[in-house]
Structure formats: structure tokens, C-alpha cells
């Protein structure tokens, strides 16, 4: 009796519907994309032997469309908001949007590659990717390039990259890999200390070490984002809630005390509370951002018609791009952006929920969480709901590293979406 | 072995995370509602305020033309020079060539050299580092501005030293028609004259130029500019005739100079048919381009006041003099018109058939009036038996008093009102005042009698002339006005002065009769014979009124002295001498009034201080207006002809030439060719007795001299005789009815008596009837 070696014993146990007809499989193999897919994919048999997944499906087109809409929207806004700045700074209105286009093209390549890779590949190389990111990030204080007093970039000759952006993905991969690997120990809450160590202490140590590297760059907002991403992943991964709540409370109180007792933070808080008292220094950007938002009204002044982008809002294509959205497209446009992010999160979390394994699920959670946290914090900053700090708005803010890494991340999510568990 | 992809709590945790996110999003949207919807107006306003720089573009003020479209008032560009201390400081900080304060010093030096400003003041201003606009000097002319512009470019001081163009009113002829035109204040609004009356039309509508500026105060792309074009003011075409205005001002100045009128001289020329003011002037006037500079006469008065220059009294006097200077006496001050009003009295009488032209009156030198007694005639000896017409020509007061008694109080008052003496004329110039007169119920016999010869009530010169125009235009009361029409910059007429329906007060017959009487008086021995114009028929009437509240004091020799002078010998009430003229009498076109207020030198009668200038004005104005002269035969025989340069001609040709021009000649020396002549070519000689001396031999005019005789005060006959006897030629200045009455006398001669001049030299003499008649 020779059973077909490629048919696992468990196969009959699965629902018949999950069996893909041979004809379709054959067609896939013969296709152009299928060739490349196989070249970078783990052999199907490995997966089957591990009994992890079902058959490969199609990408989540809804998510893809949301991403593309966000990207298109963001690109248009970068063009609109950078127009005056480019003209003023570089005497060429297209300077920034041209570069953004290049980043988008690069980003699409990155996204394409990321989509082709199978989730297992990421799991396999998660630790390596993290270590590379770690080393590069550690090198930044030594070989980094300085802009506006902050050393956060590494020059590649033709362009500069911001390793901390890559590290956000690196950390997500590391934690997802880690939680996937020590899943049982972490979720076995009966063993309190074991669960605490594997699920909370050690991951927080990993997050902390990573954050230290960012803090060295004097990149407060980056650190906060990094920390929050880490927390989101370990929270989703099953870290014991009581610890997180406890640490969270202690952290908040600590932050509150620090902000009260240090002059630097006191001043920042004061600027936050009364930006109009600092119209020139400190409060300028906040004020001008609020003016831009407020003057947009319900319908906005019209696309391209922003007045505040004319050097009132400094570098309007960066962190404060949302203010220009608000000004040009009004309340409607602003809410549309928030709803787009909401849709993104909704679809992203669906993918996470249906992801084939803990690793992919946590990766999606981390990536979508990152976008959610960053967009929420960005809007909170520009509406002066929280003290100002430099957080970019994903898909909208101009910036090469963040855009490219974001699109790679979208590629990863889309790659995972192919392997979503089917609806019953 | 396999564990589920998602641990049991992951779903819940994800939902918790989503809930937190939704809460955050809702909070953020609520923030957007607050900012974008609730506080929209506030933020909108802030953005617009910080974004836009609103410049008002001033429209060009309308130009002012005379009736023939000669430009009287226009706009010119001047520059305001200012420095930007903040930019200078920044420039110095960045520049390698200039240290701190060095660029400022260089600019200051240039400004001192070019504008003549004080060096330290400039330096002081340049140290106001937070300022970007410190004015150095205003009203800098374009040429000077060009020098500074070159300096700025040469040194790269753009933005540090700035020129800003501004529009400034410019009056092409300075003081010409100053009281009619007025002037504008520093805001560019008219404050006097037509500049004030038509300010709303002249100023136009200012435009708005809203530029959006970015945060660096740089211009934004064009689409952010909003431009509401300025609408230039309407151009005024006035009824003023520049030539007539010029001539009137000349004559007023001459009248002012010769009579030394304390209270100024004013004159009006009116188109009798339309009421259009052809000329209107007050002497002394002022320069419209610098209205705040006192005229010379006032400066003298100010200096003689004895006040210290920094005292309050000095400043007060100065400003009151300035207001006096600006006042258009023709419409803002009233006077008792005196005998010129007799035209009105006579016209009413003729219109009402109260008298006939040939009615005889007897003037014993006074007239008894109920409630007063005898009211004297200006000719105290009396005119004796006169016809009504002659009584008017001779300005006989008793004749007029009797006439007005015949007219009756009610009838007279009705006409008095109809002629406009009880209301303003409505001229389109600011500050017009109305007359001072009795209400009818207060008019008793005395008032009525004195009204007949224009005393005890007051009127403005313009009111007086307007009333007299009625006689000149066939009986219609016109509304005097200065505006002819308004045109836009392309010459399209925007609006034309619309005359109201004119009220006919007098019949044409009355007017013709009256004009005939007046013209006859001027041409013969009437009181206004000084107003005679050769070749034209002029209807004129002089007037002299006494100011009943102001006296002039004389010493025994007739010199004016102050009231408290120990040498005061006698006193006389101040007088106002005036004269109105209508020409040509057979078909009146213009009416002229000249009023000399408080003449102090010479006879103070209107016939002496005003009438001659009416004559001079008309003799220039009538030919200009194209009125054909009609000379009498006697006048034709005394015409002036011009002679050409005859030197080089043969004697025969020269004598033939002279004979053809009805002149006489005399040859001096032996020869056949004219070597020299006297008077020189181009001179005008009278055909009555003109002699040309032709030098053909060795003798030349330079050595062949005679002495000019003294002809001052001589009659025409005596003067002619003296000059002809002295082998000189005579030229009569002006056109004077020299034989009327007791005969005109020479009041000036040139060259002066006793001067040695070549034989045949033309002696210019001026005649005037100097007997004190009214």
C-alpha cells in the first residue's frame, strides 16, 4: 500500500472544502507569479507537515483597497501641502512630491516583495531581522547623520534612512516570534511567575532595550511609539493583564510627576495648555496648526487652497499634514481620514483574527496597531489634545523611511491575509 | 501539539483595544467639531488677519479743466523716502562688507547729501531696530527719487532704503483761480473751492488690493490676490476760462496795487446767459500748491503785528490771516453794493412803468425822506434838472429815491426777493453766505430810500452780479455755477451742469432800454465813463458805498495815518468802490464785477478804483471772446497802426510806406537810404498825429534827443499838444473815453518827465477820469 506521500494522514480530517482542486494548483504552478512565489516560499510540504495551515488563498482585497486609498489620499495631500514649502525652500513646487513618488515606487517594490514572501519566512528570519535592525540602530549614534540637532539617520549615499522606523517592524517581528515560540508558557497563567517572566518581564526587557536605543537618539516620540507597539503586541500575545495594568498605572503616575517637577516638561505642558502665549517660540506650530484646522470649517477651503501651508504651518507635509487636510477638505475630509483609519484597523484586526498562527496574528496586530496608535496620536497632537511631539501620520506624512517600511508592513499583512482561515 | 492560532483571550483583548481606539477617535472627532464647526469663525478670522495685507489703492483724483479743456489741476507723483531699521540691522549682521552701523551710516550720509535732512535724525531713526518703516522725508520729487534709487541699486540696499510713490495734487498755474479751485488737505480731500464742492466726484472710489502673504511676508501665488480696481474720480470741466481768469487777476492785482485796498479786491466774470462763472478771483490770492504759505501781503501784516514769532497771538493771527486768504470774498463776504444797485432800482421802475426814460427829475443835492430828513446826493451841489436816464447815468441819488417811492414798498420788495437778494445764489462753491437785509415789515421810508442807491443792506458780490446779469440776458435770473460738465478719463461726458428753469423777472424791452442808457453813459459823460472800451459798447455802472462802522484817518496832507495818530486831520468812512460792466451792450455776453474793498490811496470812488480795470479787462476779453469791434469814425481816425523796420529802404519807399499808413514822416539828414528810424520798427503810432523820423544822413536817433515833457494831470488835448510839440509820439494806454464829462486826465506817463529820449520816441500815457463821481 503506497499512500501518496504528499497527502498527510490528517488530510481526511479536514473539511473537504479546504481541499483545493488539483487543476487550480497546476495552474498556479505554471503562472509567472507562481514561479517567483515558489522561489521565495517555504516548501508547501513543510507547512503541511507542521499541520499549521490550510491552502493558500487570495490577498485581502478590501484591505489592499483601503491601503491604496489611504496611500493615494496621502500622496495628494503631500503634494498639496508641500507645494508652497517646496517652492519656498527649493524653488521647485514639485521637489517634495517628486521625492515622495520615488519613495512610493520603492515602497511598492517593497510591498510587492513582502506580499510574495510567506508568513513562515518572516517567522524564520524574525530574530535575524531584529538583530540586524538592532545593530544598525545601535550604529546610528556613531555613524548617523544629524538633522536639526538630532542624529537619527544613516546615509546610504543616495538617500538617508531612519533605522528607528525599521526597528518598529523589527520589534514587532521579534515579539511576535517570541510569543509564538513561548506561547504555552505565556498563556499558562496558572504558573504565575513563569507566565509573568515569559509573558511580561522578558518581553518588556526586550522592548526596553529597544527603546533605549531610540532614547539615545533623543527621539522621545519614536520611543513612545516603539514602546506602545511593543505593549500592543505583548498585550495581544497574552501577557498577563494585571501586570500591564499595574505597569501602566505606575508609568502614568511617574510621567505625571516628572512632568510636574521638571522645568523642561513644565514649559512644554504650559505651551500645550496656552499655545497663544508662545506665538513665536514653541507655540507657533501648534497655533498655526489649530488655525489651519479651525479655518477649514465644515467643507474646507478646497483642495489646494490652503492658506496655512504658506509657511504658516512649518513643514506642512510632515507631522502637521493633517491640519492641511482639515483646512482644505474641512471637517468632512478630516472625519473621512479618521474613518479610513478605522476601516483600516477593522480590516487589519480581522486579518489578525483569521491569521494562520500566533506569529502572523501578532505581526498583523503590531503593524495595524502601530498605524492606529500613530494616526491617533498624530491627530491628537495637531488638535492640541495632547502635548505636542513629533509623530507622523501614516500614509500621509512625507518621509522616505517611514513610507517604505509602512508599505513593506502592508505587504506583510497582505501576505498573511492570503492564509487567512476561511469563513465557516 | 498544535496550538490555536489565537489564544483564547486574544479576541477579547482585540475588542478591548478597538474599544479604546474608538473612544480615542470619537474624542478626536469631537475636538474637530469644536475647532472646525464651533470655533470656525474665530479661526477663519485669525487666518485671514495674519494672511492678508490689505492695501487700498488710491484712485487718481479727477483733474480739473477750464472751459476750453486747459488743465488747471492734476496729480503728480511724489515719493516718500523711508528706511527699514530692522532690515538694515539684519543686512549688517549678514554682510561681510558692512559692520554694525556702517550701512546705516552710509545711507544716512547719502540722505543728508540728497535730501538735506539732518544726519543725527537719520541715525536715530535707523536705530529703532524693531521698526521697518521710518519716514525720512515726504513729497520728494521724482528726480531726487531717481538719484536715491540709483544709490540703492548701486549698493544693494534694496529693502533698507525705500521709496514709496504717492500721488499729490498739482495745480498747473499755482495761484490761478485759486479761490475757485481751492486745494486738498493732506488726506487728499478738497477743502476749498470746487475741490471741496465736488470732492465726492473728484476723489473716486478707492480700490482694495488684498495680497495674501505667507508667514515670511512674501507674496503668495497670484490666485491669492484680490484686486478691486480703484475708480478714478470724475474730471471736472469748469466754466472758468483760463485766459479771462488770468486777465481778471491781472486787473485785480493792478487795482489792488493802485488803490492799496485794505480789505482786498475781488472780481467776477459771468456768462450772462448761463450763469457760468468765467473768472472769479480775489487779490491777494495764494498758491494752491502751497496753500499754507501766507501771501506776501499777509506776511507783512503778520510782521507788523509785532507779536513774537512763537507767541500764541502770532499763531492765532497767522491762522486767521490764512483763513482770510483762503476765503473767496466773492461769495463769503457781504458788502453794501452802493450805486451799482441803481441798475436794479431802475429796472424795476421801468418794468413796472413807474417811470419813463424821459421823465424829468430835479436834484437839489438832497432828497427829503420821511422819518429822517434830507438824504444827500453824492454830488452835494445837485444834478439839477435831469431825465430819468441821465439821473441813472450820473448816479443821482434823489432821482433814485424818488423812483423807488414811485415803485412802492411792496412791489420793490417783491422784486428784491425775485432778484435773489434774500437768498443764496446756489453757486457750487463752498461757504456761500447770504445777504443782510430788512424784512419787509421793517422797511420804512428811510430804508426804502437808501435801498434805492444800494445802501443799508448787504449782499455778496456774486449776488449783485447775478442780479445784474438779469438785466443783461433779457430778464432771466440765472444760477451762477462753476461746473460745466464732468468727463471720465476717456473724455466721455458723465454729467453736464443742468440749469434749472430760469425765472424771467424783467422783460427784454426793459433790459434793452436799460442797457442803452448805461452804455450811453459810459460812452459820454456818465459816472462809469472810465469803463469805456474803444470799439465796444459797454453798459457799466459804478458804485461807492460807505462802511458805516469803519473809518480811515488822514493827516493834513492826505496821508493815511492810524486813528490814534496825533496828526489826524480828518476822517472818512472806509469805502467800497465797485463797478459792474456788461458787454457788448447790444448783445450782452459777459458781465463783470470788480469790487475794491477799502481803497486807501487815490480816489476811493468806484469810478476811479474799479471802472478803469473793468475797461482794461474788457478790452482784452472782448476780442478774445471773438466779439467784433465797431469803431466810431472818430475812433477810426485815431487808430494805432504798427510800423515795420524801414532801415535799408530807399527814402521814397519808406515815405510811401508811412503815408499809406496815414502817418506823417520827417527826414533828417541828406541821403537816399534810410539808415535809422525813430520810433523803431514794431512800434504802434496813432494815425491822428503819429510821426516817423527817418535818418538818412550822419545823424542818428541816439544823438538826436529831446526831453520828455511832464504831462501828468493834463487833459487829452493838452497832453497831445505837449507831446507833439516835444517831437514825440503818443500812445494812449487802455481805451478811454477821454472827452466824456470834464475830460480824463493823465494819471501815468512813460518815460517819466525830464527823461532824454530820441526824437519820435513813443510816450505811453494813461488817462482816467479822476473827478470824484459815483
Question: How would you describe this structure to a colleague?
Answer:
The complex is a heterodimer of chains A (424) and B (774). Chain A has 424 residues and is mostly helical. Chain A has one domain (57-417). Chain A contains 16 helices and 3 strands. Chain A has a 3-stranded antiparallel sheet with strand order 1-2-3. In chain A, a hairpin with a 4-residue loop joins strand 2 (150-155) and strand 3 (160-161). In chain A, helix 13 packs across helix 14. The two termini of chain A are 34 Å apart. Mean pLDDT of chain A is 83; it is low at 1-29 and 42-53. In chain B, strand 16 (483-487) and strand 17 form a beta hairpin. In chain B, helix 10 packs antiparallel against helix 22 (611-624) and helix 14 (342-351) crosses helix 20. Chain B is globular, with a radius of gyration of 38 Å. In chain B, the strands form 10 sheets. In chain B, strands 2, 3, 4, 5, 8, 16 and 17 form a 7-stranded mixed sheet that branches. A 6-stranded antiparallel sheet of chain B has the order 10-9-22-21-19-20, sandwiched between helices. Among the domains of chain B are: 58-172, Penicillin-binding protein 2a (Domain 2), CATH 3.90.1310; 633-768, Trypsin Inhibitor V, Chain A (2-Layer Sandwich), CATH 3.30.10.20. The longest helix of chain B is centred in the N-terminal third of the chain and has 29 residues, at 10-38. Chain B is an alpha+beta fold and 774 residues long. Chain B has 25 helices and 32 strands. Classes of the chains: A mainly alpha (424), B alpha+beta (774). At the A-B interface, helix 8, helix 10, helix 13, helix 14 and helix 15 of A face helix 1 and helix 2 of B.
Amino acid at each position: 500500500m503506497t499512500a501518496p506521500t504528499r497527502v498527510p494522514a490528517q488530510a481526511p480530517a479536514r473539511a473537504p472544502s479546504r481541499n483545493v482542486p488539483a487543476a487550480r494548483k497546476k495552474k498556479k504552478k505554471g503562472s509567472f507569479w507562481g514561479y517567483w512565489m515558489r522561489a521565495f516560499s517555504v516548501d508547501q510540504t513543510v507547512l503541511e507537515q507542521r499541520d499549521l495551515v490550510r491552502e493558500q488563498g487570495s490577498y485581502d482585497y478590501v484591505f489592499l483597497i483601503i491601503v491604496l486609498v489611504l496611500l493615494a489620499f496621502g500622496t495628494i495631500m503631500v503634494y498639496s501641502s508641500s507645494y508652497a514649502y517646496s517652492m519656498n525652500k527649493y524653488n521647485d513646487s514639485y521637489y517634495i512630491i517628486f521625492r515622495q513618488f520615488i519613495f512610493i515606487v520603492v515602497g511598492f517594490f517593497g510591498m510587492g516583495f513582502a506580499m510574495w514572501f510567506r508568513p513562515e519566512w518572516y517567522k524564520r528570519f524574525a530574530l535575524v531581522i531584529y538583530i540586524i535592525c538592532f545593530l544598525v540602530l545601535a550604529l546610528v549614534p556613531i555613524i548617523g547623520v544629524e538633522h536639526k540637532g538630532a542624529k537619527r539617520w544613516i546615509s546610504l549615499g543616495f538617500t538617508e534612512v531612519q533605522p528607528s522606523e525599521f526597528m518598529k517592524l523589527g520589534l514587532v517581528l521579534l515579539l511576535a516570534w517570541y510569543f509564538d515560540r513561548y506561547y504555552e508558557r505565556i498563556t499558562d497563567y496558572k504558573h504565575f511567575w513563569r507566565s509573568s517572566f515569559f509573558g511580561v518581564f522578558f518581553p518588556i526587557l526586550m522592548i526596553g532595550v529597544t527603546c533605549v536605543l531610540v532614547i539615545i537618539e533623543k527621539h522621545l516620540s519614536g520611543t513612545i511609539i516603539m514602546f506602545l507597539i511593543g505593549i500592543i503586541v505583548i498585550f495581544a500575545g497574552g501577557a498577563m493583564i494585571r501586570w500591564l495594568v499595574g505597569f501602566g498605572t505606575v508609568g502614568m503616575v511617574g510621567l505625571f510627576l516628572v512632568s510636574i517637577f521638571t522645568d523642561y516638561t513644565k514649559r512644554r505642558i504650559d505651551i500645550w495648555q496656552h499655545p497663544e502665549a508662545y506665538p513665536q517660540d514653541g507655540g507657533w506650530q501648534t497655533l498655526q496648526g489649530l488655525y489651519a484646522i479651525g479655518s477649514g470649517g465644515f467643507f474646507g477651503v478646497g483642495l489646494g487652497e490652503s492658506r496655512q501651508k504658506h509657511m504658516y504651518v512649518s513643514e506642512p507635509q510632515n507631522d502637521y499634514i493633517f491640519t492641511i487636510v482639515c483646512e482644505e477638505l474641512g471637517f468632512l475630509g478630516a472625519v473621512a481620514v479618521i474613518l479610513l483609519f478605522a476601516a483600516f484597523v477593522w480590516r487589519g484586526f480581522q486579518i489578525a483574527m483569521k491569521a494562520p498562527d500566533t506569529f502572523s496574528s501578532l505581526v498583523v496586530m503590531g503593524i495595524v496597531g502601530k498605524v492606529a496608535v500613530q494616526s491617533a496620536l498624530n491627530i491628537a497632537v495637531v488638535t492640541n489634545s495632547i502635548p505636542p511631539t513629533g509623530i507622523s501620520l501614516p500614509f500621509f506624512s512625507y518621509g522616505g523611511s517611514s513610507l517604505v517600511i509602512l508599505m513593506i508592513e502592508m505587504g506583510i499583512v497582505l501576505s498573511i491575509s492570503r492564509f487567512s482561515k476561511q469563513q465557516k | 501539539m498544535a496550538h490555536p492560532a489565537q489564544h483564547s483571550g486574544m479576541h477579547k483583548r482585540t475588542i478591548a483595544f478597538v474599544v479604546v481606539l474608538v473612544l480615542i477617535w470619537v474624542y478626536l472627532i469631537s475636538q474637530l467639531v469644536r475647532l472646525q464647526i464651533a470655533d470656525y469663525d474665530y479661526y477663519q478670522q485669525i487666518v485671514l488677519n495674519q494672511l492678508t495685507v490689505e492695501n487700498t489703492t488710491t484712485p487718481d483724483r479727477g483733474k480739473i479743466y477750464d472751459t476750453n479743456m486747459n488743465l488747471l489741476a492734476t496729480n503728480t507723483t511724489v515719493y516718500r523716502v523711508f528706511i527699514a531699521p530692522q532690515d538694515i540691522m539684519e543686512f549688517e549682521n549678514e554682510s561681510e562688507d558692512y559692520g554694525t552701523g556702517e550701512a546705516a551710516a552710509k545711507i544716512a550720509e547719502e540722505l543728508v547729501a540728497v535730501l538735506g535732512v539732518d544726519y543725527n535724525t537719520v541715525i536715530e531713526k535707523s536705530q529703532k531696530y524693531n521698526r521697518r518703516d521710518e519716514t525720512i522725508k515726504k513729497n520728494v520729487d521724482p528726480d531726487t527719487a531717481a538719484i536715491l534709487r540709483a544709490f540703492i541699486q548701486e549698493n544693494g540696499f534694496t529693502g533698507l532704503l525705500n521709496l514709496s510713490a504717492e500721488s499729490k495734487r498739482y495745480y498747473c498755474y499755482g495761484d490761478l483761480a485759486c479761490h475757485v479751485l481751492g486745494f486738498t488737505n493732506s488726506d487728499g480731500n478738497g477743502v476749498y473751492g470746487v475741490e471741496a464742492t465736488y470732492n465726492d466726484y473728484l476723489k473716486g472710489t478707492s480700490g482694495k488690493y488684498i495680497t495674501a502673504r505667507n508667514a515670511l511676508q512674501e507674496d503668495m501665488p497670484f490666485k491669492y490676490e484680490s484686486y478691486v480696481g480703484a475708480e478714478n474720480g470724475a474730471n471736472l470741466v469748469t466754466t472758468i476760462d483760463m485766459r479771462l481768469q488770468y486777465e481778471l487777476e491781472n486787473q485785480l492785482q493792478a487795482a489792488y496795487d493802485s488803490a492799496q485796498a485794505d480789505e482786498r479786491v475781488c472780481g467776477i466774470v459771468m456768462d450772462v446767459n448761463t450763469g457760468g462763472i468765467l473768472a472769479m478771483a480775489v487779490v491777494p490770492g495764494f498758491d494752491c500748491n502751497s496753500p499754507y504759505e501766507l501771501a506776501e501781503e499777509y506776511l507783512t501784516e503778520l510782521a507788523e503785528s509785532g507779536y513774537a514769532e512763537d507767541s500764541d497771538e502770532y499763531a492765532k493771527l497767522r491762522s486767521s490771516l490764512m483763513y482770510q486768504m483762503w476765503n473767496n470774498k466773492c461769495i463769503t463776504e457781504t458788502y453794501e453794493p452802493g450805486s451799482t444797485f441803481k441798475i436794479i432800482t431802475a429796472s424795476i421802475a421801468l418794468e413796472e412803468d413807474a417811470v419813463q426814460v424821459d421823465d424829468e427829475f430835479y436834484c437839489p443835492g438832497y432828497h427829503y425822506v420821511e422819518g429822517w430828513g434830507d438824504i444827500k446826493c453824492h454830488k452835494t451841489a445837485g444834478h439839477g434838472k435831469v431825465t430819468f436816464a441821465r439821473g441813472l447815468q450820473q448816479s443821482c441819488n434823489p432821482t433814485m429815491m424818488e423812483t423807488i417811492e414811485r415803485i412802492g414798498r411792496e412791489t420793490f420788495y417783491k422784486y428784491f426777493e425775485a432778484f435773489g437778494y434774500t437768498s443764496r445764489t446756489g453757486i457750487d462753491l463752498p461757504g456761500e453766505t447770504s445777504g443782510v437785509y430788512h424784512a419787509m415789515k421793517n422797511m420804512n421810508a428811510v430804508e426804502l430810500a437808501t435801498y434805492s442807491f444800494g445802501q443799508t443792506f448787504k449782499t455778496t458780490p456774486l449776488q449783485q452780479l447775478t442780479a445784474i446779469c438779469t438785466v443783461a440776458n433779457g430778464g432771466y435770473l440765472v444760477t451762477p455755477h462753476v461746473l460745466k460738465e464732468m468727463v471720465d478719463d476717456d473724455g466721455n461726458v458723465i454729467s453736464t451742469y443742468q440749469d434749472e428753469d430760469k425765472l424771467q423777472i424783467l422783460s427784454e424791452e426793459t433790459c434793452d432800454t436799460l442797457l442803452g442808457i448805461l452804455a450811453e453813459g459810459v460812452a459820454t459823460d456818465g459816472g462809469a465813463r472810465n469803463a469805456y472800451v474803444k470799439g465796444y459798447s459797454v453798459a457799466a455802472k459804478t458804485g461807492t458805498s460807505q462802511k458805516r462802522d469803519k473809518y480811515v484817518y488822514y493827516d493834513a496832507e492826505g496821508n493815511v495815518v492810524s486813528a490814534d495818530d496825533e496828526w489826524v486831520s480828518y476822517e472818512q468812512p472806509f469805502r467800497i468802490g465797485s463797478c459792474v460792466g456788461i458787454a457788448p451792450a447790444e448783445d450782452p455776453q459777459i458781465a463783470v464785477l470788480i469790487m475794491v474793498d477799502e481803497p486807501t490811496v487815490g480816489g476811493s470812488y468806484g469810478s476811479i478804483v474799479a471802472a478803469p480795470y473793468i475797461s482794461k479787462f474788457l478790452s482784452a476779453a472782448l476780442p478774445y471772446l471773438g466779439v467784433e469791434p465797431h469803431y466810431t469814425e472818430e475812433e477810426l481816425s485815431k487808430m494805432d497802426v504798427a510800423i515795420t523796420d524801414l532801415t535799408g529802404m530807399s527814402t521814397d519807399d519808406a515815405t510811401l510806406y508811412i503815408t499809406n499808413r496815414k502817418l506823417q514822416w520827417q527826414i533828417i539828414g541828406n541821403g537816399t537810404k534810410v539808415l535809422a528810424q525813430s520810433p523803431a520798427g514794431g512800434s504802434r503810432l496813432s494815425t491822428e498825429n503819429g510821426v516817423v523820423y527817418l535818418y538818412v544822413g550822419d545823424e542818428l536817433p541816439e544823438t538826436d534827443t529831446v526831453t520828455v515833457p511832464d504831462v501828468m494831470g493834463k487833459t487829452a488835448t493838452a497832453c497831445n499838444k505837449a507831446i507833439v510839440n516835444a517831437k514825440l509820439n503818443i500812445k494812449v494806454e487802455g481805451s478811454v473815453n477821454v472827452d466824456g464829462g470834464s475830460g480824463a486826465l493823465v494819471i501815468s506817463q512813460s518815460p517819466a518827465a525830464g527823461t532824454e529820449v530820441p526824437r519820435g520816441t513813443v510816450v505811453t500815457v494813461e488817462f482816467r477820469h479822476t473827478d470824484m463821481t459815483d
